[in-house]
């Protein structure tokens, strides 16, 4: 194995915390956006998104325990569907990781300043925007230092999130009892401005579970730790998502969520009996969770491009590691530049509208890869999905649910797809560069 290979130093909670920062942050941001579009059907939309998350997380967990190497989606799809499909799987996912750095930095800043405004400390609109640039740059430096240091920070934030959101908000809120009944709760008279858009957002509501695959190559004992981290992601993700949705629809006003969709979790916490005490710590933790999502985006993007460079799809420049920290500093610099470009407009809805459409395509390919590998009998990892006639049920469910989400995204967000198309064309241009050759390991 090459001396340039990335270090394996992650434990179960390290992996979980990085994936949590990625996928849970997406849900925290997008919950209010789903509700604004889906109205009284929000609970059904979130259930759909949760089922999709579970299927995709299981697919990544099963493939990751079998292929514990850096590369994730790219490695899985390349093995099952060929190198061309593998390249575009990773290329599309990398684009979404860059968007995640931008939305995490911007939404983290917005959460922080929105929380402060609730205490009469309002700031001019330019201040959160400037702060988002500072976040992106600081996270670049942190990730450059190394994956383990980043994972330790993520673990601290994940622990705080479990205490404040998981226990004191969701747990306490449900323990006090719901005042109304599902699935419409206190919103039965609320209409749906655009249920298809709501379902489209919900299909991308947990985007980031793919980080399981990216981090499998850096686990200390991947055959054991990857399945354990996968089950943690599914269990806590479902509990948070369904619990927060129930509390939001039971205790908050629909129109309050519409007015401030990006900070729905803060509104939920404020609606509880301990809301006055929870608002400050929840606001801080929400901001940090979004910031950690940006960190997870740096980690995944840089390692995807590292693997593509090693296999010759990208110039060798992207496989170079920092002499001291042994991290892919060139890829980290590229994603910083992309994030800054996305942050310049300062429009979070532009970011969320283009986010994760590429990931949905990637998830379909990974689900197909799982079906093929299980059918061939080539998977011998610790996590195994049930089968019928040798066909993975997890893979089938992933294809069905994700294809529906992709169709909804195309129907509702077709005006923004040109941005993704430019990224695809850039990938095609690199593939046509005959001077690039695989790097000898």
Task: Please explain how this structure is put together.
The chain has a single domain, classed as Amino acid/polyamine transporter I, CATH 1.20.1740.10. The model is unreliable at 1-6 (pLDDT under 50). It has helices at residues 12-38, 42-66, 73-81, 83-117, 126-145, 147-175, 195-203, 211-216, 222-251, 254-259, 264-270, 275-310, 329-343, 348-354, 357-376, 393-412, 417-431, and strands spanning 387-388, 391-392. The protein is mainly α and 441 residues long. The protein has 17 helices and two strands. The chain has a two-stranded antiparallel sheet.
Q: What's the average pLDDT?
A: 86
Helix/strand structural class: mainly alpha
List the uncertain runs. Answer: 1-6
**CATH hierarchy class name:** Mainly Alpha
Cα Rg = 21 Å
Under the CATH scheme, which architecture would be assigned? Up-down Bundle
The number of domains is: 1
Categorize the overall geometry.
globular
Number of separate helices: 17
CATH superfamily: Amino acid/polyamine transporter I
Number of strands: 2
Q: What proportion strand?
A: under 5%
Strand order across the biggest sheet? 1-2
